Each structure stands twice: as C-alpha cells, then as structure tokens.
C-alpha cells in the first residue's frame, strides 16, 4: 500500500504485485465485504453508530497504546471489511511508522516491510503535517498519493489525524479498492473514532509518566488518615487558608494541627508556636 510504504516512488516488484493481486481477490470474495457494499444507507449509518459506541467503551478497558490501536483497526475491519485499516505513529524523526493494521492489504504490507513513510510524502504525510483530514475519492488522480501498482492499489482513501494534547500523534487511515468508496459520513465517523483514540492514548501516556512526588499517588491518604486523595502538592504556609476543607484538621492549619484557626472558625487556645507561620 503506497501510503504506508517506503518514501521512494519505486514500483512494486513482481512478487509484491502477485501478493497484492491475491489480497485483492480475497478481499472481493469476502462475504462481509459484499454485504457491506450491498447494505442500504440507513443500515450503514446504524452500523457506524454502533461501532463508534462499541469502540468508545472498549478503548477504556486498556491503558496499553499498542493494544488500543490493534483493537481499533480490528473493529473497523471486522465491521466494514475495509481493504485496509491502519494506524501510523508520528515519531520525532519525522517518520510515520505503522503500529497496527488489519485487512487483506495489511498482510502484504507486513510481508514486504512497507511499514515506514516520511512525513514529507504521501497523503498520510500531508495529513500529519497539516493536522487536517483528507478524503481521496480516486487515488489515481491525487498528486500526493504514492503509486506502487496501478492494477492493485486502493482507489479510495480516508486519512484522519490522531490528536493528543493538541498535537498530531499519528494518522488513522482506511482504504478501499473501489473509487469514491467513502463519503462525508465516513469522515465524521473516522474523525470521531480518531478523537476517541487520541483521548485514550493521552491516558495511556499519562500512565507511563513518572509521578512528580508522593502526592500524585491516587492511593495516598492525607496526613490525618482520612482517606482523602492527595492529587496536588501541599501549598506553602502562606496559602494554607486556600486548602480544601478535607485537607484541614478541624478547619485549622493542616501542617501542625491544633494551631491557628481559620478566620471565622471557633476560636481556641493556641498550643505553642507554629514553626512555619510564626518564625519569631
């Protein structure tokens, strides 16, 4: 497949062309592909909505980014029998690398190591650079598409950026052997799926980051054993009055208990000097 191939526009070799032709015949003979093509617009839309809901639920079940990607492409292919459903990750060296793929063409890509692509090449590279989706009704007429074999290349492509923290993390790409196979409805669906994946990737990356201190530990309780979650570092003594009530000891300073009460709280006798607030 050109979009996930090596950057050069070299044609496919004889062995690769043969394997591509076999993959295309297998795809067209697949019963699910025929049923998807014959289904009406309402049935197709219903399947799209069910898929979106199912993916949103399943992506929350794991924090492993590789598993998320494989789950997503398998669901896409399993529901709509796409010729190719693939995810590429944009790495710091400006290379898009295949992380998950499903469909008849995916096997060919893996066999011939068509797993890397420069961000400067192809439709997917354009999407990664711009951060905007690309709907290609006919790849033979698109100047950005990287041709490898005109007889077996996909004719339609939909490429959508996967955004994480406002930046392009990767690209979600689906392809079909027929021209004009995708519509604006498909764009909406795939963009929603890519957004859901981006949120899940963000969660997975956050799990990998080392915690800044013990106060980021979700299992930690406050110093009085109340079981309150400590989600931020404790403020300094100058800001202790802004602490949430759950972090205070009887509405007083949380650092030394039984010290200066908050303004408006019932007055009580101070028992000694506070080491941080009363330095003298």
How would you characterize the overall build of this protein?
It is a single chain. By secondary structure, the protein is α+β, with helices and mostly antiparallel strands. It has helices at residues 14-29, 31-38, 41-59, 65-80, 104-111, 122-130, 184-208; strands spanning 84-90, 95-102, 116-118, 134-136, 156-164, 167-176. It has 2 domains: 2-208, 2-Layer Sandwich (Beta-Lactamase), CATH 3.30.450.40; 211-274, no CATH class. 36% of the residues lie in helices and 14% in strands. The chain has a 6-stranded antiparallel beta sheet, with helices on both faces. Helix 1 (14-29) packs antiparallel against helix 5 (104-111), helix 3 packs antiparallel against helix 4 and helix 3 (41-59) packs parallel to helix 7. The longest helix has 25 residues, at 184-208. The protein is globular.
Helical percentage: 25-40%
Oligomer classification: single chain
The CATH architecture of the largest domain: 2-Layer Sandwich
CATH class of the largest domain, named Alpha Beta
> How many DSSP E strands?
6
Report the order of strands and helices: HHHHEEHEHEEEH
- CATH fold name of the largest domain: Beta-Lactamase
Distance between the termini: 75 Å
Strand content: 5-15%
Rg on CA atoms, Å: 27 Å
Number of domain units: 2
Can you count the helices? 7
Overall mean pLDDT = 76
Approximate shape: globular
Strand arrangement, major sheet: 3-2-1-6-5-4
What structural category do the secondary elements indicate?
alpha+beta
CATH superfamily of the largest domain: GAF domain
Taking the sheet with the most strands, its summary is:
6 strands, antiparallel
Could you list the spans in which at least 5 consecutive residues all have pLDDT below 50?
Answer: 1-9, 212-240, 254-280
């Amino acid at each position: 497949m050109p979009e996930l191939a090596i950057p050069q526009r070299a044609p496919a070799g004889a062995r690769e062309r043969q394997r591509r032709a076999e993959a295309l015949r297998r795809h067209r003979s697949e019963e699910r592909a025929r049923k998807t093509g014959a289904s009406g617009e309402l049935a197709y839309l219903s399947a799209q909505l069910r898929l979106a809901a199912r993916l949103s639920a399943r992506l929350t079940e794991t924090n492993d980014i590789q598993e998320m990607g494989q789950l997503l492409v398998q669901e896409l292919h399993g529901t709509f029998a796409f010729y190719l459903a693939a995810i590429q990750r944009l790495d710091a060296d400006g290379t898009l690398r295949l992380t998950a793929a499903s469909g008849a063409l995916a096997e060919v890509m893996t066999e011939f190591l068509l797993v890397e692509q420069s961000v400067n090449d192809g439709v997917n590279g354009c999407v990664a650079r711009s951060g905007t989706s690309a709907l290609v009704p006919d790849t033979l007429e698109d100047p950005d598409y990287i041709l490898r074999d005109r007889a077996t290349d996909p004719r339609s492509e939909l490429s959508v950026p996967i955004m994480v923290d406002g930046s392009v993390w990767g690209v979600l790409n689906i392809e079909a052997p027929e021209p004009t196979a995708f519509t604006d409805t498909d764009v909406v669906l795939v963009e929603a799926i890519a957004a859901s994946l981006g949120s899940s990737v963000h969660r997975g990356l956050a799990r990998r980051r080392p915690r800044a201190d013990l106060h980021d530990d979700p299992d930690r309780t406050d110093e009085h054993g109340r079981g309150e979650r400590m989600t931020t570092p404790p403020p300094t003594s100058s800001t202790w009055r802004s602490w949430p009530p759950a972090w205070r000891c009887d509405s007083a300073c949380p650092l030394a208990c039984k010290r200066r009460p908050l303004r408006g709280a019932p007055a009580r006798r101070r028992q000694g000097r506070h080491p941080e607030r009363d330095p003298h």
